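ESCALATION

Customer reports they have been waiting on this structure for their group meeting. Please prioritize. Original submission:
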Amino acid sequence: MSAGALHDRVATSLVRAEQRYTAQRRQLVELLAGAGRPLSIPEILGTQPGLAQSSVYRNLDTLERAGAVRRVQGADDFARYELDEELTGHHHHLVCTVCRRITDVELSARHERALDRALEEAAERSSFRALSHRLDLFGVCADCAAGPAGPGV
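Update from on-call: job pushed to the front of the queue and completed.
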């Protein structure tokens, strides 16, 4: 999606939520769009030193309520934020339990269909109607596995 189309869709979401698309919200959307992975508030503040922490929390909350941003829980107490899948496309996450980094990962269409079928079967066994799914894999990233302690950290 082009940057212009992205901003148009976010602006539309905010208008529906009776909110304005302020310069700071636009800055957050651009940062999240360019990150390629979910970011924690400390990471956001580290890349944008002029932002006030309270404003970042408030604006992310507004963007989340408008459906433009979603919160991703990692392996620690920090929530991370990314653009909603409606803006970026469906994907899953690899969560490193050592460095706490979250990486986006997309499955092939064939694997995504197989996962959908397996999850639909699991839901049906419980008489549950699934609307969507999110899959987060927790483990050790390649950098941490190859770190000073050696593979298999």
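Sent to customer with the following note: Helices lie at 3-16, 23-35, 41-47, 53-65, 85-88, 109-125, 142-145.
Escalation resolved.
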